[in-house]
């Protein structure tokens, strides 16, 4: 694997690991020094198998986090995003925007079908505005407006 790809994988792993570390510690209340803390498990996997083989396992855990957070109310997401920004870590909204299969399904369907999805799209539109293109912001606003008018 070329060096630039290895660095990109390492950067992705580090970013997701930091996110999972705070989530595991603050939300799941797993003590940082616990051998079963996902960060500690992941570091053992990296040491044993390398980043390229450990990353898919980390990604599956992140997918579980996203699934768990699907039903969070907007205020909880905003509060958690604020915490993550204080740590200088990627926010839940940003991880949802880039990794959530549910968010991708909503975009593909062009339809928000329930309150949980509405809150997810709303938090992404609000919290990720700086990383969205104008076209993406317009699309999310249209989805939100359509749901509001249908309700």
Residues in helix, %: over 70%
Q: Any idea what the radius of gyration is?
A: 17 Å
Q: What share of the residues does DSSP label as strand, in percent?
A: under 5%
Number of helices: 8
Helix-strand sequence? HHHHHHHH
Averaged pLDDT: 93
Q: Give the CA-based shape.
A: globular
Distance between the termini: 51 Å
Count the E strands.
0
Which stretches of 5+ consecutive residues score pLDDT under 50? none
Major sheet, described briefly? Answer: none
The number of distinct structural domains comes to: 2
Structural class category: mainly alpha
What is the secondary structure topology, with strand pairs?
Elements: H1 3-26, H2 38-49, H3 51-69, H4 74-87, H5 92-99, H6 101-109, H7 115-127, H8 134-150
Provide structural commentary.
This protein is mainly alpha-helical and 151 residues long. The chain has two domains: 69 residues, no CATH class; 80 residues, no CATH class. The chain is built from eight helices and no strands. The longest helix has 24 residues. The radius of gyration is 17 Å and the shape is globular. The protein starts with a helix and ends with a helix.
In brief, what are we looking at here?
Helix content is 77%, strand content 0%. It has 151 residues and is mostly helical. The protein starts with a helix and ends with a helix.
Key attributes of the depicted protein:
77% helix, mainly alpha, single chain, 8 helices, globular, 2 domains, 151 residues
